[in-house]
Every structure is written in structure tokens, then in C-alpha cells.
Amino acid sequence: MLDSRALLEKLIAFDTTSRESNLALIDCVRDYLAGLGIASVLIFNDERTKANLHARVGPPGPGGVMLSGHSDVVPVDGQAWTLPPFQLSEREGRLYGRGTADMKGFIACVLASLPRFLEQPLRLPLHIAISYDEEVGCLGVRSLVEQLRASPDRPAICLIGEPTDMRPVLGHKGKLAMRCDVHGAACHSAYAPLGVNAIEYAARLIGQLGEIGQRLADPDRHDERFDPPYSTVQTGLIQGGRALNIVPAECRFDFEVRALPADDPQQVASELRAYAEAELLPRMRAVDPHSAIHFSELSSYPGLLTEPGSDAARLLALLCGHEDFSTVAFGTEGGLFDEAGIATVICGPGSMDQGHKPDEFVSLEQLAQCDAWLARLAGWMRLA
Ligand SMILES: [Zn+2]
């Protein structure tokens, strides 16, 4: 039987950067599972270049626990790696390679633990879910979530192994990324009032976003479990204009909302739309009737906040040996599972301090902790 290190070595060797196919990795996992007598269901994307894998062991029926991870990794382009990113290297108790922490280390531990789950009958079903395209907006998992939502046999609890240094995590903020295109009207800058300056109207919208952000930061709305303890809004990209002596007809900017699970980020977008409709468009159209402001969603995923007293949180505390729960700054697929009626918590080996960076690593000690955590889960799920 292969241990978690040996399995991680196999998984790291597949370049599953989100833009690439993940099918070679999925085939490898499917073959490994088949070798243990476990059947896999693959859910492909439309182009059949990527797939989610779903497998289950134990008794049939609803309930039980799902172990979930994403197979894709972020690019290594432009990063100063001193070790090969797609080949596992061991240095002083650390295993280096793209995805070791985020989050093939967890998947390797899950696969290595399966013989334990198979040793004796389980009293609950165990599900395994491996997704694609998590790093580009939690896109791939959505088809699997829909299948689970529609199934009477969906698991009750999902454990996502994103890197938390094996600490129990109950939540994170949600995110909405939006694009705004302002279409004005160009003219010679000497006649500026005859044009519709798209940059200046975009600036008004961005200023309005700033005011919404300030309101969201109101201390009355704080939730100290999160850092920062309030929802935030920021504009991160802007482009517009061709020359100083031309009134710019076009301006585009991208903004994002990082929302506490209690706040709805779509609310920010609708408020900005309403402001554009009521305050800006009438003035723009008075000069040029073709003026327009278009909003489009770039990506979004919901926040997650599982109750400390829930079954999912209690199980996580049992596995971790304490209930010192926290939240993380990064997003996960957890909010999507949660919306489908699967209570979700997060715990996995390695740290996001290493995730997405050159020379990403997970320590052997973290893998061992995860192996032990999974052994406790196997014990908990065993038929007495
Ligand atoms: Zn991740």
C-alpha cells in the first residue's frame, strides 16, 4: 500500500494548473480507487477536458461524511522556483512542489487512508470528491454540487482539506468580482462639455463604491471572527482613454466585494446599479442618448460560517482534539456545498502562507498529522 508521501509524489507530477486538463490525475486516482474495489463517477466539463471525481464507500443511503479537495493548482509562471514545481523534492522534513499545500497533500492523505476505511464495515457512507477549476472561481465543483443537491443520498457533512495547518476552521468570507463598462461619447477636449467623459463617470461610480465600503465598515456590523471583521469593497483594475486631448468614450474597471457570510455582496452591486441609473445615466444621456453603463459578473462564491454547535463542527473538534475554531481569509468551495444542504468545515495539512508561492511545501509532520486525523475519522465511522 502506498503512503501519503508516495501518493503525493504521484499527484504532484501531474501539471494540473487550472488552464490544463486534469484528466491524467483523475485517471490515476480512478485506477487507484479501482484497485481498492471502489467505483468512481466522473462528471466532465462540456469540452470533456476536465472532470470532477465522486466516489463512495460504506453503506448505501443518505448522510455520512464527504472528504473534498480540488485537483487544480495555480500557475508557476513568473515565479522564482529553486526546485522543480512538478516533481516532489524532500528537504529537511519538507516536501516541495506546486500543490503540496494547496491541496494535493490532503488528497494524498485521503487516498492513503482508504484501506483503513475499508478494513471494517462503516456505519455511515464515506464520500470522496475531487474537483477542478477551484482556483479560477470555484467553477468546476458546481456540476458535482448540483448532482449532490438533486440526490437523496447526499452526505450530511463535508470536510474540505484546504491548508489550515490542521486547525479546525468554520468559515470564510464570500466574494463577488464584477466588471463595469462605462460608454460615453468622444470629442475634442477643447469642447469637453459636448462629450460624455467615461473616465469621469467611472470615477463617480468608484467613489460611490468607496462610500458603500465605508458604510460596511461600520463597527455595529463587525463580526470579530473574521479579519478584517467587516465586508470590504475595492477597485483593482481600471483602463480608459486614448490621449489627453480626446474626451474618453470608454472606461472599464473591475471591483470586488469580500463579504461576511451575513452580508450579501450582490447588494453592493445592485446599489451601484441603482446609483448609475438614478444619478449618472440621465446626465450622460442628456448629452448623448447612446451613453450606457454595463455591469457583468466575473466570478463569485458564497461565504461559509458553520455553527460551532453543529454536528459538522462537533465532528471536526473531535478529529482535531480541540474546539479552538477559527476562520480563514481565503475562499473555498465550502459555501457551495453548504448551500446544497451539506454542512461544511475546513481542515487540512500545510499552510496558505506557502500556497500560491514559489517553492510551495508541506511538512512531513503536517502529513502525519493529517494521516492521524483521518485514522480518527475512520475509527469514528466504523460500525461498533
Ligand atoms: Zn485551494
Quick take:
This protein has 384 residues and is an alpha+beta fold.
Characterize the structure shown.
The chain has 384 residues and is an alpha+beta fold. Helices cover 33% and strands 24% of the residues. The chain has 9 helices and 18 strands. Strand 1 and strand 2 form a beta hairpin. Helix 3 runs parallel beside helix 9. The chain starts with a helix and ends with a helix. The protein binds zinc ion (ZN). Zinc ion binds next to helix 3.
Describe the SSE topology:
Elements: H1 4-12, H2 23-35, E1 40-44, E2 51-57, E3 65-70, E4 89-91, E5 94-96, H3 100-119, E6 126-131, H4 141-150, E7 157-160, E8 169-172, E9 174-183, E10 187-188, H5 198-216, E11 232-240, E12 246-247, E13 250-259, H6 265-287, E14 292-301, E15 304-305, H7 311-320, E16 326-328, H8 334-339, E17 343-346, E18 361-363, H9 364-381
Helix pairs in contact: 1-3, 3-9, 5-6
The structure holds zinc ion.
Fraction of residues in H or I helices: 25-40%
Q: Number of DSSP strands?
A: 18
What is bound: which ligands?
zinc ion
CATH superfamily of the largest domain: Zn peptidases
CATH architecture of the largest domain: 3-Layer(aba) Sandwich
- Major sheet characteristics: 6 strands, mixed
The name of the CATH topology of the largest domain is: Aminopeptidase
Number of domains: 2
Give me the strand/helix succession: HHEEEEEHEHEEEEHEEEHEEHEHEEH
Total helical elements: 9
Q: Distance between the terminal alpha carbons, to the nearest Å?
A: 25 Å
